[in-house]
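Dear Dr. H.,

I hope your travels went smoothly. While you were away I took the liberty of generating a structure for the chain from your last submission, since the lab meeting agenda had it listed for discussion. I wanted you to have the full record in hand beforehand rather than looking at slides cold. The sequence, exactly as received, is reproduced here:
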Amino acid sequence: MDGHRWLLSTLTLVIFVSILFWIGEIDTLIKTGSKALFSAHLLSFGNSSVGNNTENVYLNASRRVAVDNLTEVGTTSDVVTSDRNGSVSSEEGNYYLTASFRGRLGNQMFQYAVLFATARANHAWIPLLKKCRRLNVLKNTFGRSLSISSANFTIVNATAVEGIVDADVMLKELRHLPKSNVLLEGYFESHKYFAHVKDDLRKEFTFPRPFRDEVSNYYKSVTPILWKDEPFVRVGIHVRRTTLITEERQKMGFIPRPPTYFTHAMEYFKQKYNRVQFIVTSDDLAWCKDNILGEHIAYSTHNYTIDLAILSLSDHIIISLGTFSWWAGWLCKGTTVYYGVMPPNDTYLGKVYNNNSCVPVPDDEYNHWVSII
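The corresponding predicted structure, in token form, is as follows:
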């Protein structure tokens, strides 16, 4: 009998110590903010979330997949992905969806947008960002507002889906993906790909607080002294030159914006508003200072990520060449003025943008697009 009591007491003590250890571990996890690890613990007990304000976290310990040559094979046996909107999960039977992510920030934003939109239209596919240095540009610009997780593993047996000129035809393909892992190849540069998720996409492309604070401080520093206590309108101007105005690029259909375009666009706003300040951002400020002249003009010397925030947070915007400029116009809540001369029909861009299914100007109540030459 004494032996049984001793054994029972010992077991009780072991269970009690184990409970204390478990509680202490949870407390440590909470204090260190390790939500994914904490959620993984809870998943083993049939729960997939922590509290009401955390992301849904899905644990998949059996599959390590990603696109060949896009990422290095991960070193962990567990794959944790999260979907802030709760529209997909990593249960068996689902597939993975990623994109090739080429080019610089503007191109990457298009590729992220089509990845985001395609995943919304195909809930059986889990969207993932590939692991590569190039994507740091996108991640550093928008930070935690991006809800698609990064892969730390390799996706195999992926079917490549190539972007084509006709956006309407391409949309049909994106809504009926092959039953496999999928790699989106190409640039997909049409607003039609993500028109059905545009409001949610704008939340994805939200600048981090430090960026917004820097822009706010810059706005204050360049506000005309006599307008400190007066209402006025701020118009951002983006001028893309350098690599997009070479002879080779012009043969592709890139048309350098002449000084008269910016003069006419600025006059458009001056006629609408009593007080207008213009903030010029460019990869060629010397050209801008020689050709974009007038009163109440500031020239930004920030890097391109802050410049994008300066432009898109302005009241209105005048855009020029390139995807960076287009996104600044799309993100701006006011009027977007664009150059009304389309590329020649016999050029690459002419074939892309003169196609009725791939118009570069969105029909959007969020902002108003105006053509000026």
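Two observations you may find useful: The chain has three domains: 15-54, 55-204, 209-372. The mean pLDDT is 76.

With kind regards,
E. W.
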